[in-house]
Specification:
By secondary structure, the chain is an all-alpha fold. It contains six helices and no strands.
Length: 147
């Protein structure tokens, strides 16, 4: 499983984001490209402890969903989006893309960190699992937009 904490996966993700433009269209789902780049910032903000979005520990999330976050099995198209990560208005693609790249760069700068605080809903992840989860989420949405 690829991890955002490896140089290869980090470079790949940045390269794929650079292929996006304001006219990029989704193959599935309801978000436009500006909304998607805004949405992808949420999990990175959680990892970097910038925002927990008021999430609470969830035994359901830990038991039924947590392993899918960092497994090799791709997520299916059209998975429901957490309400706090669901955009309710259009977002400016250029500014959201820049913010997303900044968060990815900051995340990558912590690649050697071995201890992370628990996720507010899913609980403890190893450093490898954090990196894998972030890669998988970004990969899912970049694939959604054909890059």
């Amino acid at each position: 499983m690829k991890s955002l904490f490896t140089s290869e996966a980090y470079s790949e993700i940045i390269s794929r984001i650079d292929q996006l433009n304001e006219n990029s269209q989704a193959s599935w789902g309801k978000m436009n490209v500006g909304q998607m780049t805004w949405h992808c910032q949420g999990p990175l903000n959680i990892l970097l402890e910038k925002n927990d979005y008021g999430m609470k520990p969830s035994w359901f999330a830990k038991v039924f969903f947590k392993k899918s976050l960092y497994s090799d099995k791709p997520w299916r198209k059209g998975l429901p989006t957490a309400k706090f990560l669901k955009p309710t208005e259009d977002k400016d693609f250029s500014s959201e893309k820049a913010k997303l790249v900044d968060l990815i760069n900051e995340t990558y700068s912590h690649r050697d960190k071995s201890e992370w605080k628990p996720h507010p809903a899913f609980g403890y992840f190893t450093a490898d699992q954090w990196g894998q989860m972030q890669y998988k989420h970004l990969d899912h949405h970049l694939t959604q937009f054909g890059v």
